[in-house]
């Protein structure tokens, strides 16, 4: 019990520390100094956006060859039109009769400490080419997103301090979201009907998971399910895109022409440091989680989860690590999940790059040109038994007769059991 109380206090303080400051103020994020002992630059200097005149000019012009962070074309969001704010409704514990009834009891949503956008999203992302990135260790986790051939990497060392990046990828307005407390990352399409939304952090938690809000209507949204839960857009659902957490080295080698979110976020943070050290202890207690944990596993047991059309399937990471390949039937179709080592936990030690190796996962439809493939792990890749081709954890064939082929990726989350079993209570669990 004492450990649980201490955890809540510590995490609450760190959530407030994550609010930090902008470049115009002092750095309020002295959560840890341990990151300075790593081989990465984690003193926050790379987040300084002052620069010299030449660098500023290169950044504004979008010169990708300059080695300076640059902007990319962004699709403009719809104007604000707040008629029944979900933020105000939560504060008042009531909604106007003109909006749908909340999907969630007000009492289930808790303040995490920071105010709305106190943990500031990245609204003006700037990028680097992979060859120009010098602040990531080989084993650091990045969120890999690809839409219509546009490949992006979002370092978790940045997302852990901002939780949301509003971006445009492959001509699609997206929000890349990450919740440290439930260790889940989801990329959402910001288009909804004739609106283009952009999202902020509400400062609220539902079952210890990030609650977002859109700036257009101030509806509250569940990061975990992508549903509007309080406000004008209650009951609406966002589409998502497959998003994988992989090692920086894996993504870089596979996408030499991709784009990497830079530390030039407009805010000063201790990028590279983990503000939640020790949080992923398998015997730990989730922050502000008041539900009952499904007793099959401990609350912070890691799980690989897939959901589609109301069907949910979970694979305990410990079982996937042991086998590296797990095949299953899901929603009437074949599914294969892969695991490979080489990715540091972002929630273990004070320096992300020194975290325990939790590896990377991928979940795919194992079918190419109408032929269902089966796989065997081979080193840091996977070999299909039908053609002998080698595949990486991103689902790309990199050697053999099928070189250049890609498996269809399924949206999945690497998360904690308490979150998966709470939001997907009817989940099937596959262990082999």
Topology, please?
Layout: H1 2-17, E1 21-22, H2 53-61, H3 86-92, E2 109-111, E3 127-128, E4 141-147, E5 150-155, H4 156-162, E6 164-169, E7 172-179, E8 184-189, E9 191-192, E10 195-196, E11 199-206, E12 209-214, E13 220-222, E14 228-230, E15 240-241, E16 244-247, H5 248-254, E17 259-261, E18 267-268, E19 302-308, E20 311-316, H6 317-323, E21 325-330, E22 333-340, E23 360-365, E24 367-368, E25 371-372, E26 375-378, E27 381-384, E28 390-391, E29 397-399, E30 408-409, E31 413-416, H7 417-423, E32 428-429
Parallel strand pairs: 5-17, 20-32
Antiparallel strand pairs: 1-18, 2-11, 3-17, 4-5, 4-16, 6-7, 7-8, 8-15, 9-10, 11-12, 12-13, 13-14, 19-20, 19-31, 21-22, 22-23, 23-30, 24-25, 26-27, 27-28, 28-29
Structure report:
- With 432 residues, this protein is α+β, with helices and mostly antiparallel strands.
- It has helices spanning 2-17, 53-61, 86-92, 156-162, 248-254, 317-323, 417-423; strands at residues 21-22, 109-111, 127-128, 141-147, 150-155, 164-169, 172-179, 184-189, 191-192, 195-196, 199-206, 209-214, 220-222, 228-230, 240-241, 244-247, 259-261, 267-268, 302-308, 311-316, 325-330, 333-340, 360-365, 367-368, 371-372, 375-378, 381-384, 390-391, 397-399, 408-409, 413-416, 428-429.
- The strands form nine sheets. The protein has a five-stranded antiparallel beta sheet with strand order 2-11-12-13-14.
- Strand 13 and strand 14 form a beta hairpin.
- The model is unreliable at 1-9 and 21-61 (pLDDT under 50).
